[in-house]
Amino acid sequence: MPNLSYTTLDVFTSTRFEGNPLAVITGAEALDTGTMQKIAAEFGYSEITFVLPPKNPANTAHVRIFTPTMEVPFAGHPNVGTAYFIGQQSEIFGKPVGDRLRFEEAAGIVDVDLRRSNGQVTAATIRAPKPLQTGATIPEADIARCIAIRPDQIATALHRPLFVSVGLEFAVAELDSLEALAAAVPNPALFREAAGNRSENNHDFSLFLYVRSKENPWHLRARMFAPLDNVAEDPATGSASAALSAYLVSRAPGTDGQQRVTIEQGVEMGRRSIIEVDVTKTGGTVAGVRISGSCVFVMRGEILA
């Protein structure tokens, strides 16, 4: 294995040591999947990415995303952070870097727009690669047991807990107060039991909890637990935010158009993140989901051969 360069960023924030950490690794063309997985486990971040030459030269890069335990087909903060990283380069794989990027991923093509100010990238916006998909509902008692709260602290007026996805599946549940959200504590054994009760097996059982602001129902506070991926809690989860936002907009009455959803996450961890999701609805159906965020660089270094 050659020496590999890595850069770390904090994603969905403009303040260092907040947001969600990400490692972006380049020069890994010779690595096999097993070695990539070991590197992801060594970093211990919720995800890391490997930026590889595109299979189709019309695209910008082939991006592989790993949690500490598995490769995933799509995720939000790795795409935003990787796009921000690439946007700082003058060229990649022999081509100049513009303001629009295309990433090849297991979930499909991920389109990216870069926002610049005075020539510098300030934020990245990605489009979810898959349409909104909804899965089975989940008993409130099962959710409550997983996070050690009472079943009556789960709000069900808008929807029951269920699985949603725009490229990566999550269980989502609304809680009735910020106090209930703060009190949630994941129990890995019960998460494992919940995962074992499922017929699907694409991402074990990752749970995204949220509370709607009383002043603005499109401003949410959230927490995400994925102990089966060795991620006790994730400070910012773009793919879950996108799936939840798409689902909430799909159920909202009113005319078609674009709805901005702002999700604040990571507060309880001391790593506040702000995720902006724009959902477009046409003919009563969600037609597109875009996830935006800022980033800040933290470290650069080498993984030794």
Supply database-style keywords:
305 residues; alpha+beta; Diaminopimelate Epimerase, Chain A, domain 1; globular
Uncertain runs with pLDDT below 50, 5 residues or more? Answer: none
Q: Give the SSE order as H and E letters.
A: EEHEEEHEEEEEEHEEEHHEEEHEEEE
The helix content is 10-25%
Stated plainly, the CATH topology of the largest domain is called Diaminopimelate Epimerase, Chain A, domain 1
Distance from first to last alpha carbon: 5 Å
Output the structural class: alpha+beta
- Tell me the number of strands: 21
Number of helices: 6
Oligomer: single chain
Q: Biggest sheet, in brief?
A: 19 strands, mixed
Note the beta-strand portion.
35-45%
The CATH superfamily of the largest domain bears the name: Diaminopimelate Epimerase, Chain A, domain 1
What is the CATH first-level class name of the largest domain?
Answer: Alpha Beta
Outline type: globular
Q: What is the count of structural domains?
A: 2
Mean pLDDT: 95
Task: Report the C-alpha radius of gyration, rounded.
Answer: 19 Å
CATH hierarchy: architecture of the largest domain? Roll
